[in-house]
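Hello, quick one for you while I still have it in my head. I'm working through a protein record and want to make sense of it properly. Would you mind checking whether the tokens look sensible for this chain? I owe you a coffee for this, so here goes:
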Amino acid sequence: MADSPGLPLRLSTVIVPVHRWSEGGRETWRRAEELGFHTAYTYDHLSWRSFRDRPWFGALRTLTAAACATGTLRLGTLVTSPNFRHPVTLAKELITLDDVAGGRITLGIGSGGTGFDATALGHEAWPPAERSERFAEFLRLLDRLLSEGGTGGVSYQGEYYAAHEVRTIPGCVQRPRLPFTVAANGPRAMRLAARHGQAWVTSGDPATFNGSADSFHAGLARQVERMERVCEEAGREPGSLGRVLLDAAGFQPIGVSPLASVAAFVDYAGRCAELGFTELVLHWPVPDSVFAADPGVFEDIATEGLAQLAG
């Protein structure tokens, strides 16, 4: 499984899948490993916001290639959702990916939104209540498929998903299955994170976007308090659930810019560490996009940021 809470703060990155493998893709993932990032994630979307009319490659195939191009870097999605996936086929893809990567895969997973993915298969975007219900069922079945799919297989009949004697042999390299990092803002998703997750991921409270740095961090503190209460109510030690923060500044104005300078990152990371976050995820710079940032500053943050925080 992934590192447990209580260990030092980790720094990770998310590399959006926009580069042809022969034109910078391979080198980017290798560079992430060279820079010492703990995990390199990618978005699991069919397309995304302002990138809709730009190159965009599939997440799981990209991660398979990245697994072959690296040796120690953890890899993962941030996040996979039910919008265009089914637990049975996803489980088979994940055990294959975990095998190729030698047990270096983390599945970031969430309920999905109402963007392009939600309607790409020709149906209307699901209402929020249905999306929440689907996610709960999706996560429950996927957990079983990855943990229990040996001889005899897994059978399940739910409202939205079904499986009949599905085998997932030999299972994940990581036992009992690869770790789940569950995206959650609301109470129901937080309960799912407490039940199924090895970690919880958030980008912060959307209500505090477009505000000040202080309001953003205050919103984070409230989210942490809610997650701790949910864990306690579920009979789980709050400290046993990792806390992952995806940098929202890459796609929302949040009053703080951790990639502006090493000093800005150190301040940001220090405040997040005080809230018990165990992993920070920064967007790899993409020129001429919402993820544009100074590559030199980004690399300095990767190599020096946490050391300065510890100092």
About this structure: The longest strand covers residues 74-80. The two ends are 29 Å apart (CA to CA). The chain is about 40% helix and 15% strand.
